[in-house]
Design a protein that fits this description.
The chain is mainly alpha-helical. It contains 16 helices and 2 strands. Helix 6 packs across helix 7 and helix 10 runs antiparallel to helix 16.
Length: about 400
């Protein structure tokens, strides 16, 4: 069988739209750490209370991601992501109006409305990329996830500047307007798979006919649930998401608590974002060459090493030294998780399976920000929380070393 390249492959439009969605959706969530102190200053809440809103958000995000994955498999990504865009824009507007004497409002808006908004931005989007690319699945997943890295780098600095000039309430309004317009627009370019427009993955044109059904092969959800590998990946997701959520939410407050100026503290999160871009691109491509399993193992080793270093990092330059390898590993994880799932379970129910893994990871990992806030209230330091992150990272490394391919039935 020979292959030719189509003159124009729509998959690259999917990637461009996906990058835009990642920037818009995750920029709001990842900048919460920058909003953290201004909200505390106005409302006078404890860190644990405000961190609890983020915990609740991630908990709801996990379950809505599972739902979004199943809806994406059934109805396609355009409809699901359009709905997400509406919730995301609405959530930003509502965040600007929450009141100090109504804690439930920030839990309802940030915890539920914005969770619904971001729910499809990873699971549905990455499942779609996996269907459009086979040989370059890791590379294109990594390129798409660059959007989240860009948002982690650029949005916190932008938000810090907007808050200093206009206040945190107006800043949420300034974020909501472009999100509502551009997110909806980007969602309209999404198509479930190449067969919808008569193309094949990677832009190939084969001399022999090939049906769409032959492209999406793999295990059903019910079959995947019976495998040891599925549950190992769910536990793996718990560890990785616990670390990701805790660090993203608390690294800026941690730096401020160490005496770092607020703008410099925000730049630590931005450094993680820049490094994550490199990790997404480099390890996504590496996953295509050496396999997503080996590439993910390297990613976990880097994350564990950086978290151990964080225990001694008490100066700005040391925080930057932590941020570089951690950000690289953070970005690599999100670039590799969808190709890893596709490698083990195929594409037939990619969104549903990936959604459950995200659900398990986020539901348990959501405890991280609230636990870290509570530990800070008790001890005036985040070091115990970061040590717990290192423990979770060690557990994920053990899982990667024990993970084996699914044995095919005779």
């Amino acid at each position: 069988m020979t292959r030719e390249k189509s003159p124009f492959f729509y998959g690259y439009i999917i990637v461009i739209a996906g990058i835009s969605i990642q920037i818009l959706a995750w920029g709001v969530i990842q900048s919460f750490g920058v909003f953290f102190n201004p909200i505390l200053d106005e409302f006078g809440w404890s860190r644990a209370v405000l961190s609890g809103a983020l915990t609740f958000h991630y908990f709801i995000y996990g379950f809505t991601s599972m739902l979004a994955g199943r809806l994406g498999d059934k109805f396609g990504p355009r409809l699901v992501l359009t709905g997400c865009a509406i919730f995301m824009g609405l959530g930003c507007f509502l965040m600007s109006a929450v009141q100090a004497d109504a804690v439930w409002q920030i839990y309802a808006v940030f915890g539920i409305v914005l969770a619904l908004g971001v729910s499809g931005s990873d699971v549905v989007l990455l499942a779609t990329i996996a269907r459009w690319f086979l040989r370059k699945r890791g590379t294109m997943s990594g390129i798409t996830k660059v959007g989240a890295g860009v948002s982690m780098f650029a949005i916190p600095i932008l938000v810090r500047w907007l808050i200093s000039g206009y206040g945190w309430r107006n800043t949420y309004i300034f974020l909501g307007i472009p999100i509502l317009v551009l997110f909806v627009l980007a969602a309209q370019f999404m198509k479930k798979n190449p067969a919808e427009i008569g193309q094949l993955p990677d832009g190939d044109r084969e001399t022999e006919s090939r049906t769409a059904g032959q492209v999406e092969t793999g295990l059903t959800l019910q079959e995947a649930l019976t495998t040891r590998q599925f549950w190992m990946l769910c536990i793996f997701g718990i560890g990785m998401f616990f670390c990701a959520f805790t660090i993203t939410a608390q690294i800026v407050p941690h730096a401020i608590a160490l005496g770092v100026p607020e703008m410099s503290a925000a730049s630590v999160l931005s450094t993680i974002g820049v490094s994550s871009i490199v990790g997404r691109l480099f390890m996504g491509t590496a996953g295509d060459r050496i396999g997503s399993h080996k590439a993910m193992t390297i990613c976990v080793i880097l994350m564990l090493s950086s978290l151990l270093w964080l225990q001694t990092a008490d100066r700005l330059w040391m925080l930057y030294t932590f941020a570089v390898p951690y950000g690289f590993a953070h970005g690599a994880f999100f670039a590799l998780i969808s190709p890893l799932v596709a490698t083990f379970f195929g594409l037939k129910r990619q969104g549903s399976i990936l959604g459950i893994i995200f659900c398990c990871g986020t539901a348990a990992g959501a405890i991280g920000p609230m636990l870290a806030g509570r530990l800070f209230d008790l001890t005036n330091t985040y070091l115990q929380a970061f040590l717990i992150c290192a423990g979770f990272s060690l557990a994920t490394l053990v899982i990667m070393l024990l993970l084996r391919p699914i044995k095919q039935k005779a």
